[in-house]
Write a structure and sequence with these properties.
single chain, 8% strand, 366 residues, 3-stranded antiparallel β-sheet, 56% helix, 12 helices, mainly alpha, Glycosyltransferase
């Protein structure tokens, strides 16, 4: 998707979100990006390598959308932080947070994939080989360190890279959601033509398809089910490279319907902005890539709810960002870069769809 004319309302929403990324302080002076801003405590959480990766991809998306060079520079500052500061060249991985928790830090498979995809995006706009080379090294370590037969361990303890015991929460156990991060292997195959990367992605697809049916609801608590909707949508996003396969398209279409049903049921009590945004993106990519009919009224409903999460404030630390979620219609005090990334992309894609300007393709997915 390239530059196109946004409506004045959408232009203002995108501009507010973009300026929040650049000017709110969510990106620290060293280029790293905080996990979230706590509006009740008036402080940032610690720097997250995963969220910094998302910020790289988001700012480059905004650069692609608007042509504003400030977004490119912000993205490259974040990318330089990842390769020059956060990357551990001895362990050949990205710790979960910066600075790592002493010698017993953690590394997540999911985070590494998000970062590798972001570094490839930075390489494509800058032609700086360090971004590509670090992405390749990350992809190789993901395959060597996290995989055992058909299982992908979600979390390893550093420095020994031993898998942590699995826990009931979705992010601490293997699952179909890991396919979103495994897309890094597909992107690396496209960048290098190394078929080992392609085979790693195909293996992840096969594993995810075998297990996805049991991922939802996956919990008895409505709040936990809402969290799992977010993760399940990662699985659907991970299918985008293979949506030309009828079996994958069928699973994708059914998955959209499942998520929408749970979201309608749970949202009055607890709703996440990223779930609304991810579901809207899934609908739009499904139509564009696989010809899945778009439920226009449902998409419009989701877009309307996404808009409601954007912060309108005189405080530059929050203005233009997006709240993570709300309970009983009250916003939770987390202004979240990942939520903002998904929301601004979903709304810009929706705008493009309404103007019949949405191009087929998955390369810009944040």
């Amino acid at each position: 998707m390239g530059i196109f004319v946004l409506s004045p309302e959408m232009q203002r929403a995108i501009d507010r979100a973009g300026r929040w990324f650049l000017e709110s302080g969510i990106q620290e002076a060293n280029g790293g990006v905080a996990r979230y801003y706590r509006s009740d405590l008036a402080s940032n959480a610690g720097i997250s390598t995963e969220i910094t990766g998302y910020a790289v991809s988001t700012l480059l998306y905004l650069y692609q959308l608007t042509g504003d060079a400030a977004y490119r520079e912000g993205a490259l500052r974040a990318a330089r932080f990842l390769v020059g500061t956060a990357w551990d060249p001895k362990l050949r991985t990205f710790p979960f947070e910066y600075p790592a928790n002493g010698t017993r830090g953690l590394t997540y498979f999911f985070d590494c994939g998000i970062i590798a995809r972001a570094l490839l995006a930075a390489w494509r706009v800058s032609d700086d080989a360090i971004f590509r080379d670090t992405a390749i090294a990350t992809g190789r370590s993901m395959a060597a360190d996290f995989r055992v037969h058909e299982t992908i361990h979600p979390i390893l303890a550093l420095p020994d890279k031993q898998p942590l015991p699995y826990e009931p929460r979705w992010s601490a156990a293997p699952g179909c959601y890991q396919l979103k991060s495994a897309m890094a292997w597909y992107d690396l195959f496209e960048a290098t033509r190394d078929t080992e990367f392609l085979q790693a992605y195909e293996n992840a697809v096969d594993s995810a398809l075998r297990t996805e049916a049991d991922f939802l609801p996956g919990a008895s608590s409505q709040e936990k089910v809402m969290d799992r909707l977010h993760a399940y949508l990662y699985f659907l996003e991970g299918l985008l490279p293979v949506l030309d396969r009828s079996a994958c398209a069928q699973v994708y279409r059914r998955g959209i319907e499942r998520v929408a049903g749970y979201l309608r049921e749970i949202a009055p009590a607890f709703a996440r902005s990223d779930v609304y945004a991810q579901l809207l993106r899934a609908r739009l990519y499904g139509e564009s890539l696989a010809g899945i009919p778009l439920e226009f009224a449902d998409a419009a409903h989701e877009a309307e709810h996404v808009c409601r999460f954007q912060v309108d404030s005189t405080d530059r630390r929050t203005h233009g960002g997006y709240f993570f979620g709300r309970k009983s219609q009250e916003p939770l005090p987390f202004v979240n870069p990942a939520s903002a990334a998904f929301c601004l992309q979903a709304l810009s894609l929706w705008e493009a769809r309404k103007k019949n300007a949405l191009e087929a393709g998955r390369g810009t997915l944040i």
